[in-house]
Amino acid sequence: MKYLTAIMAAITMVASLAVSTAARAEEKNWTHVTIATEGAFRPWNFTKADGSLDGYEKLIKYFCAHMKVECTTVIQPFDGMIPALNAGKFDAIVSGMSATAKREEVIAFSDSYGTTGQTFATLKDSPLANLPLKGEVFSLATDEAGAVAALKQIEPLLKGKTVGVQTASIAASFLDKYLKGVVDVREYKTTEQHDLDLKAGRVDLVMASMAYLSTAAAKPGNEDLIVTGHRFQGGMLGRGSSVGLRKEDTKLKSMFDEAIAAAKADGTIVKLSQKWFGFDVTPR
């Protein structure tokens, strides 16, 4: 009787494991995906007057069609996206978020679908409008020493200046690591807010992605804005904008990776790059 009881217990355990495994498999059979975006980060994403979303990250529609899933897009403040993702409020982040080592400690990322680097902007009549090495690109991944040396050239000009950045952005992390004690940093919920303070004279510079700043400078009402200084890529700035995902959602990551590869292969990313940025942002 004792052995029969043990056998029955073992059968029950195996059956429970089978049900649990089946349940997990069912959970990974994605038919609907809820995607968070900021809706205020031109040209990556922005909200039009009618409430609809537009910008380069309309790639979302392509991704969802390729993955053959129904998608719902929700607007979420950028600085709270990662905690909200891990809390299960949505399934993915598509919001110009760079895949950095720090962020990868808590979430996973798909392959990159675009990269433009980080740079500065100021006003045309500012003494900082023509910083040395303007427009030159430096890699923190392959030549960090060269990037640091380039920054040293402009440190005397930046000393004591106030730089606006978006809260929780890689620009904020960059300034904290490479220009701490040189500049004063003022953080904003959105990049559009720091642009307004730049025009109002409350900050001397702003730092954000090259794509965002070049687009912002071209907007009506921003004629006095100008991109200045060198551009930085790689290293702590990450490997480019990627889809943020929970670490356990490995199947969803594979689905996004396949969709991104298809968008690269069929020219969709190049086409949208030229439309929204004026240059190719395809990761290489």
Overall description:
This protein has 284 residues and is of the alpha/beta class. It is 38% helix and 23% strand. The chain contains nine helices and 14 strands. The strands form three sheets. A six-stranded mixed sheet has the order 9-13-8-12-10-11, with helices on both faces. Strands 5-1-6-14-7 form a five-stranded mixed sheet. The longest helix has 26 residues, at 2-27.
Q: C-alpha Rg, in Å?
A: 22 Å
Oligomeric description of these chains: single chain
Shape: globular
Helix content: 25-40%
Q: What is the helix tally? A: 9
Going across the biggest sheet, name each strand in turn. Answer: 9-13-8-12-10-11
Outline:
The protein is 38% helix and 23% strand.
Secondary structure layout:
Layout: H1 2-27, E1 32-37, E2 40-41, E3 45-47, E4 53-54, H2 59-67, E5 70-75, H3 81-86, E6 92-93, E7 108-114, E8 118-123, E9 137-139, H4 144-158, E10 162-166, H5 170-178, E11 184-188, H6 191-199, E12 205-209, H7 210-218, E13 225-233, E14 241-245, H8 250-265, H9 268-276
Parallel strand pairs: 1-5, 1-6, 9-13, 10-11, 10-12
Antiparallel strand pairs: 2-3, 3-4, 6-14, 7-14, 8-12, 8-13
Helix pairs in contact: 2-8
